[in-house]
Write a structure and sequence with these properties.
This protein has helices at residues 25-49, 52-70, 80-93. By secondary structure, it is an all-alpha fold. It has a domain at 25-93. The chain crosses the membrane at residues 31-48, 54-71.
């Protein structure tokens, strides 16, 4: 009767409610807001140019970018926009130290 019970908790389980693959509730709200913000210039360009094809392609592209950017990456817990922000912050924080060789020790 001295059996040890262990609890197995998988690593890639999200505690938040997800809509589809990797889209959490907060990220879905951000993607919808980004889609609406991007839809305004596309709607204005439609009223100025009266080009149906441009507005349809632009709208679908913008929606794909906004929802695809907020979907979680399969190998991590971050989405693409957050990864891009981390990469830009890393590049900005890098310091440049030019090395100059001098004959000081001879």
């Amino acid at each position: 009767m001295d059996e040890e019970y262990s609890l197995f908790i998988p690593e890639d389980i999200s505690t938040n409610k997800e809509f589809g693959f990797g889209l959490e509730k907060a990220d879905t709200k951000k993607a919808v807001i980004l889609s609406l913000i991007g839809g305004v210039p596309i709607a204005l360009s439609f009223f100025l140019t009266h080009s149906d094809m441009f507005s349809i392609i632009g709208t679908l592209t913008w929606i794909f970018i906004s929802f695809g950017g907020y979907a979680k990456m399969p190998n991590g817990k971050r989405h693409s926009f957050e990864q891009a922000k981390i990469m830009l912050n890393f590049r900005r924080c890098q310091k440049y130290f030019p090395y100059q060789y001098k004959e000081e020790w001879r």
